[in-house]
Design brief:
Distance between the termini: 36 Å
Radius of gyration: 22 Å
Strand content: 15-25%
Number of helices: 6
Strand order of the largest sheet: 2-3-1-4
Low-confidence stretches: none
Structural class: alpha+beta
Number of strands: 4
Helix content: 40-55%
Length: 146
C-alpha cells in the first residue's frame, strides 16, 4: 500500500468518525444506526479481480517444473519493484507446458502495468518472457496460447 492509498483511507476513516460524532449529538438512535450502516458499506474497498496472463518463455527446457517458473517470476518482480509490489502482484503459475514453453500466470489485475514492466527485465536472469495476452478467465487465456 503506497502513501497515497494510506492517506485516502485515513481521510475516509476520519470523515466517518466526525460524521458519527455529529449524528450522535444531533439525532436519535435510529438515524445513528442508519448512518453507521451506510458508513460501513462506504468504507469497504473494492477488491481487484485476478487476471490471467498467457506467456511464452525462451529458452526451451529452462524450467522443468511449475515451481521453478513461479520462483523466477517472483524474483523478477522483486528485483524490479521490491517486496511490497511482489505481495500486491502475487503471481502464481496455474498452467505450465514445459514442452511448448507456455504458461498461464494468475496475478492481481490492479498491478497489470507493473507486472508487465517487470517481465521486461527477465532477460537479466537468463530467460525471456513474451506476454501473449491478458484475460479475465483461465479458459480465454488458454485460447490465447493456442
Amino acid at each position: 500500500m503506497d502513501i497515497y492509498q494510506l492517506l485516502s483511507v485515513l481521510s475516509i476513516v476520519l470523515s466517518g468518525i466526525s460524521l458519527v460524532t455529529v449524528l450522535v449529538l444531533l439525532s436519535d438512535s435510529t438515524v445513528v444506526c442508519k448512518a453507521l450502516t451506510w458508513l460501513m458499506r462506504a468504507r469497504k474497498v473494492g477488491r481487484y479481480r485476478k487476471r490471467y496472463l498467457a506467456i511464452m518463455y525462451y529458452p526451451p527446457g529452462r524450467f522443468k517444473e511449475t515451481g521453478e517458473l513461479e520462483k523466477a517470476l517472483r524474483t523478477v518482480v522483486m528485483r524490479s519493484f521490491g517486496v511490497v509490489y511482489l505481495a500486491g502482484i502475487d503471481p502464481k503459475v496455474v498452467y505450465f507446458d514445459p514442452g511448448g514453453c507456455k504458461a498461464i500466470v494468475k496475478f492481481n489485475g490492479r498491478f497489470k502495468v507493473e507486472f508487465l514492466a517487470s517481465l521486461a527485465a527477465s532477460s537479466e536472469l537468463g530467460f525471456k518472457v513474451i506476454p501473449v495476452g491478458i484475460s479475465g478467465t483461465f479458459k480465454s487465456a488458454k485460447k490465447k496460447l493456442g
